[in-house]
Design goal:
mainly alpha; 7 helices; 2 strands; elongated
Amino acid sequence: MKWEKTITTEKEYEESLARLSKIFEADPESAEGMEAELLVTLIEKYEREHYPIALPDPIEAIKETMDRKDLKDKNLIPAIGIKTTVSLVLNRKRALTIEMIRNLSALLKLQVEVLIQPYGLDGKQEKMGV
């Protein structure tokens, strides 16, 4: 199959994956290496459109990042506010504010796109606080 257009069907996607697996380790300067680079781009585009990966829940993302970085609730005080507010946010009793989102993004190196999503708050679907 010649790669003159984007991948539009599942069959083309499968064929592209099969071809890429055969030429993946080709010299990047060779014709096959350039074909592999093109295939990666086409496959990634198809996957973004047809197999999107959902962003994680904001509170779960915060907690997972805290675990990974071995942080405690008190480490979030500079980003969220007093200890009580940190507890309320982590226990879904209070929504994140825009200022908290900015601070948490900087502190935890989390994408703002993750933190701004609506999430469950005390049994309800809540929007971010202001």
